Automatic annotation (TrEMBL):
This is LisH domain-containing protein. InterPro entries: WD40/YVTN_repeat-like_dom_sf (IPR015943), WD40_repeat_dom_sf (IPR036322), WD40_rpt (IPR001680).
């Protein structure tokens, strides 16, 4: 660092030269007197080898430097911006209206300031008419009203009674469901009463994931399940009228496959291939960094099986398949005429990453075969990642984040160990929603069909219900 006295003397010289250059004669005389500078300092010193840069040039250079630093600061406000890449801007332009972006006018207003249960809530969800449904560790379903007041308790109909791992509404025929940890699946009517002879053993162990898909063309309800027995299965639910007051419920398993490791996330999507009516099952599993897509090859055979339709690599190299796990997955809202997009929450620590992949557009088997390996026979797509963003969402090796979509306009929310976080995929940004209760770990959460209510269950046994409005 320059000597302080030298800096002070040079500053006085520059000020004196500035006053002379701009004709401030009277001020210059007083300045020379008070600064003890010799008059000759104002002469041209080129012959002495001394050339002083004028004050305006130095300040101008400093202003330009500050503008550069401000520009650089603006470029790094998002942890995903990289001045060597044009990805953030091109994504913002290219995927505007396709990827969810956060609406900063959204407000989360808590209803009734929360509710404390006597037991731990395992799953919190909504019915089709936005009634909160809770499954608890004391083997009950608790039905709440819009103010979180208890309306009804529903006992597990299985014998012996088992804890209900999953519950909710089926978007078909006003039915509700529940899944026990023993692998059982049972139906409830619109009033949450157990339906006689509608208990089905779908897995030999706990049902960890379940999804429903109703094909409007043939009015068939498909159910995809994954269990702790490492089986992934696709079923159909059928209803037959026995009498004017009685229905018969039948579940047929139309395809199953045993995967090599535990299923971590599961989603059902529509199959757009020509003449295909059965949906596709998307899964991720432990220690395998691919998004797997399964389909039923032939539904008419005696024992149909699920076949690996294709897989999407979620890392940058073909030879590193075990670098991270996918802890949750969400199919993003889809605009007409566009491919499907899937957001995936990774296991990276200390901060989660979110990967967005574009599902391949497949119109025939030729699109599958063009990416098929000649050795394994598996079709793998390697260039489907459009976003691989870092987030500010902290997590540990044991975290279980939950991804939920608000709507096409309003982005994503993530529940985790620290509370609730907002994610703007389009701008690749994330931040904590400080208006949400965060004194405990998020155990379960859901957003209702109308996208105007959010329910969160925490490990401290508290339940919080929010209105989502602008």
């Amino acid at each position: 660092m320059a000597d302080t006295s030298t800096v002070t003397d040079l500053t006085k010289v520059l000020v004196a030269q500035f006053l002379k250059k701009n004709g401030y004669t009277t001020t210059l005389k007083h300045f020379l007197t008070e600064s003890f500078l010799p008059r000759t300092i104002l002469d041209n010193n080129e012959s002495d080898g001394l050339i002083y840069e004028d004050l305006e040039s130095i300040i101008s250079d400093r202003v330009q430097y500050n503008e550069y630093m401000i520009h650089e600061k603006l470029q790094t406000l998002s942890i995903n911006n990289d001045k060597n890449k044009d990805e953030p801007e091109s994504i913002t332009i290219k995927y505007a209206g396709i990827l969810p972006s956060w609406d900063h006018n959204l407000k989360f207003s808590e209803i009734n300031k929360g509710s404390i249960l006597e037991t731990l809530t395992i799953n919190a969800t909504f019915s089709e008419n936005s009634q909160p449904i809770l499954s608890t560790s004391n083997k009950q379903l608790v039905i709440k009203d819009a103010n979180l007041q208890t309306v009804k308790f529903v006992e597990s109909p299985t014998k012996p009674k088992s804890i209900i791992k999953l519950c909710g509404s089926i978007p078909w025929k006003n039915l509700n469901y529940a899944c026990g940890i023993d692998g059982s699946f049972y139906l409830l009517d619109s009033n949450f009463n157990s339906i006689e002879k509608a208990i089905f053993k779908l897995h030999s162990r706990l049902i960890s994931h379940i999804q429903f898909f109703v094909n409007a063309e043939n009015n068939i309800c498909y159910i995809a399940t994954a269990g702790a027995d490492n089986f992934v299965k696709l079923h159909t639910l059928s209803i037959f009228a026995v009498s004017s007051s009685e229905n018969k419920y039948i579940i047929n398993t139309i395809g199953e496959i045993k995967i090599l490791s535990m299923c971590l996330s599961l989603r059902l999507i529509q199959n757009n291939e020509e003449n295909k009516t059965t949906p596709l099952i998307l899964i991720t599993r432990t220690d395998y960094t691919h998004l797997l897509c399964y389909s039923v090859d032939d539904i008419n055979v005696t024992k149909p099986s699920l076949e690996l339709y294709y897989q999407i690599a979620l890392n940058n190299t073909q030879f590193s398949t075990h670098s991270f796990n996918i802890r949750d997955m969400l199919v993003l809202p889809r605009k007409n005429g566009t491919n499907g997009y899937v957001a995936l929450a990774t296991s990276h620590i200390p901060f989660m990453r979110i990967i967005v992949v574009k599902l391949p557009k497949i119109s025939s088997q030729e699109d599958i075969k063009s990416n098929q390996s000649s050795i394994t026979g598996i079709s793998t797509f390697y260039k489907q990642i459009i976003i691989n963003m870092a987030t500010t969402i902290p997590q540990t090796s044991y975290s279980q984040p939950i991804l939920k979509s608000l709507s096409l306009q309003n982005g994503l929310v993530v529940g985790n160990d620290e509370g609730l976080y907002a994610v703007d995929l389009l701008k690749q940004d994330s931040w904590k929603l400080n208006t949400i209760y965060d004194n405990s770990i998020v155990k379960s959460m859901d957003i209702n069909r109308d996208q105007d209510k959010l329910i969160i269950a925490y490990t401290d046994k508290s339940i919080h219900l929010y209105d989502i409005n602008k």
